[in-house]
Amino acid sequence: MFLSERLIETGSEQNLRKALRLAPLNATAWSQFGALLENRGDTESAAKTLQHAVDLDRYDSGALINLGLHWEIGGEPQRAEECLREAVRVNGAFYPRWVLANFYLRQGAAEAFWKAMQDAMSVRRADLTSVFQLYWRAYDDADEILQKGVLDRPDINRQYCDFLLSTGRVPAAAGVWKRIAPQLQARDLQLGLRYVEALLAQRQIEDGVAVWNRLCEAKLLPYQGLDPARGRLLTNGNFAASPSARGFDWKVGENEGINTALLASSAGPELRIRFSGAHAEAVDLLSQLAPAAAGQVYQLTFRYSTAALPPDTGLYWSIQDALSGERLGEAPLAAAEEAWKQGNLLVRTGPHSRLIRVTFAYRRAEGTVRAQGSVSLAGVDISPAPSRFPSGQSRGAGT
User: Fold this and answer.
1) pTM score, two decimals?
2) pLDDT tens digits, 8-24
3) Burial of 137 from C-beta contacts in 10 A (0-12 / 13-18 / 19+)
4) Which of 13, 164, 180, 321 is the most core-located residue (most Cβ within 10 A)?
5) Which of the listed CATH numbers 1.25.40.10, 3.30.56.10, 3.40.50.2300, 3.30.980.10 matches domain 2-229?
6) How many CA within 13 A on the CB side of residue 220?
């Protein structure tokens, strides 16, 4: 018996014939031999062989599937369906249901297809990528796929949302996210952040803010939600949490020769950036995307102190329109060696602005060497401000 099983595993005609001589009552061997005959084009012999396999073991789902596919190829869909449904009855696992669903799809029986796919999905806990790929090849309709093909179950919704983001079908993720969002769990944080970033990449700013805020409401992010209409534009401006570089949080530049650390002091958290002197002449140190309203004057405020930096530090804050790339304003920082100083930058957004990028950067000042020292930042914020300057101008001060 062991030898015949090993021969069957190889699948070659010679070994299958040997297996049948050793174990003539083995339904699996007869089924595989019948499939081999089918592939060769000997349909008459294949039909007899496959039927013999089923007669030997009515509970061999593989034999029933092969016989069903034979009848389908031969243009007898009713007999094919009977065999495939019987395969599902005797073996309710994923694969027989998957084969039956694909049969219905080829036959153009849409409702039967969706029902069979839901049944298949209900018994599988592993990767469902092949299922979702089939849906989109067959129908390419986000609403129909979600309503008819994706069981409203947390594990399946997560898999489907991940599939949509991974394959660039970001607009289609809105429906399944609505299922996930009401009962978020810790495991949903990374998925939610990916969704935020995908929405921002497609310039769906308002939707990105809504997803970000839901993560905040669910306490998966340690921040207050964003609300541009009420002046809440910036995330983690007090550096109470380590910048994550995700979504609307700070992104810390990875620059050789520059070290960034979050420190706790009696005055509260601060972000300290140390310069070794062995770094590039112009680098972005810290940046964040923030939602904004069009045609609005905003004021960036911040506190900072420096150590061992020259009067012209080369440090500056800048704000630009993140979608158009237009630079809206810049505020250079003078040295602040003795105490914390307050700085600010006033900018006016453009008529179509919806997203701005706030950047803290270094650019070696002419006539100076590369910085060796440090700067500490705290209390960074952006808020709407009264219009204090003519359209098209900006004002900044770092002293």
Assistant:
1) 0.88
2) 444 555 555 555 555 55
3) exposed
4) 164
5) 1.25.40.10
6) 20
